[in-house]
Each structure stands twice: as C-alpha cells, then as structure tokens.
Design a protein that fits this description.
Catalyzes the reversible oxidation of malate to oxaloacetate. By secondary structure, the protein is α/β, with parallel strands linked by helices. It has eleven helices and 14 strands. Strands 3-2-1-4-5-6 form a six-stranded parallel beta sheet. A three-stranded antiparallel beta sheet has the order 7-10-11. A three-stranded antiparallel beta sheet has the order 12-13-14. Helix 1 packs across helix 10. The structure holds 1,4-dihydronicotinamide adenine dinucleotide.
Length: 328
Amino acid sequence: TRTPVNVTVTGAAGQIGYALLFRIASGHLLGPDVPVNLRLLEIPQGLKAAEGTAMELDDCAFPLLRNIEITDDANVGFAGANVALLVGARPRTKGMERGDLLSANGGIFKPQGKAINDNAADDIKVLVVGNPANTNALIAQAAAPDVPAERFTAMTRLDHNRAISQLATRTGAAVSDIKRLTIWGNHSATQYPDIFHAEIAGKNAAEVVNDEAWLADTFIPTVAKRGAAIIEARGASSAASAANAAIDHVHTWVNGTADGDWTSMGIPSDGSYGVPEGIISSFPVTTKDGKYEIVQGLDINEFSRARIDASVKELTEERDAVRELGLI
Ligand code: NAI
C-alpha cells in the first residue's frame, strides 16, 4: 500500500475549507488510490469549528483518509507536509487601504512560509488561495529560502474555469471541447482571460467567437468580476467553486495536463513573455510528473499585450509595496 500523503489546509474552518476537505479526503485531490493524512491549521478561534468538521470527516468513513490533526501551531501544521493549501487569509474590510491589507496578510504568510521552510517535506507543493493570492504566495516564498521557489503557486484556476464556462455558454460548445485557455497576470480585477490561443473543438476560439467587442466588453469583465457577482447573488463569496478550483490546480500539477491542452497557474515568473522575473503571475502551463513548464512561443497580439502588461504592472506594484513593508 502507498504511503499516505500529508496535506495541510490552513483556514480549515472557513467556508472554502468546508467545501475542500471532503473532496481531499475522498481522493479527488491526488487520485483515487492515494491515502491522505490531513493537517488542519487554524487560528485559536477557529479550532472548535475545525474539530466539528473533523468529526464529520470521521463520519464519512473515507477509505483513503488515514488521520486528521488539528492545530493552531504552524510548525505542527506543516510538519512533513507534502501539499499545503493556504486558504486562511485576512479579508479586506471596509476602509482598509491596500497597504493595510498587505501587511495584515504578511503577518500570516511570512510566518507560514517560514514554518513550511523549517518543517515541510522536501517535495512540498504549495498553493495559495487566500487573497491577495499572488502576493501572499510571494511573501510565503520569500520566507522559505530553502524551498525551491517554483513550489509556491497561486490560484488562478477558478478564473480559468470561469472563463471556460463563459466561453462554452457563448458558443454552445461543450466545456470538454475547450482547450488552451489562458489566464494571465494577477488573480484580481486586472486578470486577463485570453482566448486567442484557445481552441473550441479544434478551431481557434477567437475566430469562432469573431466579436472583439464581446471579448472586451462582456467576456473579460464577466470573468474578472465574477467573484463580486457571486457575493451579490449568494450573500457570501465563492466557496465550492473555489474549493473545486483548488482541487483542480493541485490535481493537474501532480497528475499532468492532457496532451494538447494546458492550464493556468500563478507561478514565479522566469521572465517569459516580458513578465518580470520573480513576481508570481498567472501563465499558461503544461504539467508532467509533478512539474510545470510555461508554454513558450505564443504570439501575443496588441489586444493581449496591453492587458497582460496592466495586470503585471499591478503585481509589480504589490511586490514593491510588500518590499517596502519589509515582508519580502
Ligand atoms: P472564511 O473567512 O470563511 O475562512 C477563512 C478561515 O481562515 C477562517 O476559518 C479563519 O479562522 C482562518 N484563518 C485566518 N487566519 C488564519 C491563519 N493565520 N492561519 C490559519 N487559519 C487562518 O474565508 P473563505 O471564504 O474560506 O476564503 C478564504 C480565502 O480565499 C479568502 O482570502 C478569499 O478571498 C480567498 N479566495 C480566493 C479565491 C481565488 O480564486 N484565489 C477564490 C475565492 C476565495
């Protein structure tokens, strides 16, 4: 039998945590034959609710779930971690400036990065979900100098999935016929969902749509503002779809992209496509054997260039701000 994989989830008592843990435990994160140990990391106020969730996990009698540990100590929570899902974060509250938001999250992601550095397994893979996800991932990565930088990733898979769904609805195509969609940049309102290289049943998606006004005025803003639309409709932010995207992100990273397709991940830039090295930006990537590679050689037209640059500019500003705050 296989050795269990240690999966740490922070913010385990939150709404994404509740939608996420049961799918990890039922084998959707890593595969149907991979046993898991869960480590739930919460702040002290969240421990009791996390214990309640753990009771329900027990009650599912999941064959793959070996044990559950609940803690508010990051060193314990990340001990031996092979996969870490950093979901718990400090949300922006009314009147909060960007600097306040970044420093509040720095207070979470810097110590967690250090705890990962000091305690996680050598093959640790980190996905940051908690917002601002890209810059939180940068903060954690900077605090973990002994871990290869490329192990720190940020989630843009929800944006990727949202874009596929919008494109499928518009064109009447099946979701499974849509390939090679890309989210570029930041997981924020400046993100750029790019269909110029996407395919719908083998045909170029931009040509199938053939409507630049729809792209600029409907598709891109609908995808970028979907989070706000969900809050408006549901009275709470995306949770099950965010958890689903986190599952997809890690599953694809570990198990690989399909031939002829790619996915979107926020990853440390190597300078590709003019994105400054080091910032954590979303790119088109293929994955294989637990490693990802940026898809190279795509032609970036003017429409795309302007939008990628705008999102990357926001990321460099966030990086400069956390640098000034001494967080990286
Ligand atoms: P929530 O407020 O329901 O849960 C957050 C949980 O994190 C709480 O239980 C809280 O006690 C815990 N927490 C706070 N600080 C912590 C720390 N230092 N260590 C461990 N746990 C800590 O929030 P929800 O809805 O689960 O969302 C979590 C984060 O995910 C938010 O930042 C949200 O903006 C982000 N998000 C990101 C998406 C993406 O696409 N990247 C999509 C949707 C949400």
